[in-house]
Amino acid sequence: MANKIIIVRTIAELRRHIATWRADGLSVGLVPTMGALHDGHFSLVEQSIKTTDRTVTTLFVNPKQFGPHEDLDVYPRDEAADVAALAEKGVHMLFAPSLDEMYAEESVTAISVPGIGDVLEGSFRPGFFTGVATVVAKLLIQALPDRAFFGEKDYQQLRVITRMTEDLDIPVEIVGCPIVREEDGLALSSRNAYLSPEERKNAPALGQALQKVKDELAAGTSITATVEAAKASLLNGGFTKVDYIAVCDRNSLEELETPTKEARILGAAWLGKTRLIDNLG
Ligand code: PAF
Questions:
Q1: Most CB atoms closer than 10 Å: which of 113, 169, 225, 276?
Q2: Cα–Cα distance for residue pair 246/162, rounded to 1 Å
Q3: With contact defined as beta carbons under 8 Å apart, do 53 and 171 qualify?
Q4: What distance in angstroms lies between residue 33's CA and the mean position of ligand 1's atoms?
Q5: How many helices (H) and strands (E) does the chain have?
Q6: Residue closest by Cα to atom 1 of ligand 1
Q7: What CATH topology corresponds to 190-280?
Q8: Cα(220) to centroid of ligand 1, in Å?
Q9: Could you tell me the CA-to-CA distances from 162 to 57, 128, 159, 165 in Å, in that order?
């Protein structure tokens, strides 16, 4: 049965509702999203509902995290469908601010997270993590929830947000939630909607290549040899370009020379015009 969901569009309204909940002694969970919601997002919502008294989802397609040639203009948007699904899941409030509400014309401050925000995704998508860190810092400060929930699908994003939250002493617990996958192993992503039927068939190969890297490292193959083999297998399997496959320390995301138990294997590759990312621990 669908919940009555409160929809707010201003920071003042968001704060007013949260203050009322706080006055009643209720805890608050925040699930930031850019909409186009799928089961990956719903797993974050479920985690929030399970562990806090009131769940707020945010819906804001943040232009600051898109590069000039990226998909901001065509990013999938369907607020009515998202609202209906969130109500069905029992979310209490949706914060869906306008661009002007989120970024006043005179606003110039940006938050960068050097090091961990410069490698991997950061080196292929300059400015991306500054855009993410800036909007997430704003959302956390606007709502001041007890916990905020992010998917491990965007593993580097989760690490950047955790670092930023700690560095800025924002009193919010950042909770990472496991990747949700289709039956054939493809990690759920709003951008999967861009895949043609042929590309969709080939897409699970990215996750499979990362799993093979993991298995081969466990069997004693060197990182260089297994990573090169994984890149070649993707290019043979219909992927048009591999940005990276990397074996990194799971906290710092520094690339490892020899595998350890703390390793996280991350990859990004293109199927035509669609860029997919995936990772596993
Ligand atoms: O992962 C996303 O959807 C976005 O990067 C986030 C965290 C909502 C910030 O815009």
A1: 276
A2: 21
A3: no
A4: 5
A5: 10, 9
A6: 33
A7: Pantoate--beta-alanine Ligase; Chain: A,domain 2 (3.30.1300)
A8: 37
A9: 19, 16, 5, 5
pLDDT in the model for residue 17: 98
Best residue among 135, 142, 162, 165 to mutate for probing ligand 1's pocket (most ligand atoms within 8 Å of CB) is 135
Q: How far is the CA of 149 from the centre of ligand 1 (A)?
A: 11
Give, for all 281 residues of the chain, the pLDDT tens digit: 677 999 999 999 999 999 999 999 999 999 999 999 999 999 999 999 999 999 999 999 999 999 999 999 999 999 999 999 999 999 999 999 999 999 999 999 999 999 999 999 999 999 999 999 999 999 999 999 999 999 999 999 999 999 999 999 999 999 999 999 999 999 999 999 999 999 999 999 999 999 999 999 999 999 999 999 999 999 999 999 999 999 999 999 999 999 998 899 999 999 999 999 999 99
CA 251 to chain centre: 16
pLDDT at res. 1: 61
Q: Ligand 1, closest atom to CA 132? A: 9
Give the global pTM. 0.97
Residue to mutate, 37, 41, 45, 65, ligand 1, most ligand atoms under 8 Å from C-beta: 65
Q: Look at the domain 7-177 and name its fold.
A: Rossmann fold (3.40.50)
What sections of 32-91 are H helices per DSSP?
39-51, 79-89
Task: Give span(s): CATH 3.40.50.620, the chain.
Answer: 7-177
CA 94 to ligand 1 center in whole angstroms: 15
* Residue 258 near residue 224, CB atoms below 8 Å: no
Q: Enumerate residues lining ligand 1, CB below 6 A.
A: 32-34, 62, 65, 132, 135-136, 154, 157
Q: In the structure encoding, which two tokens stand for residue 17, read together?
A: 């509702």
69 part of the active site: no
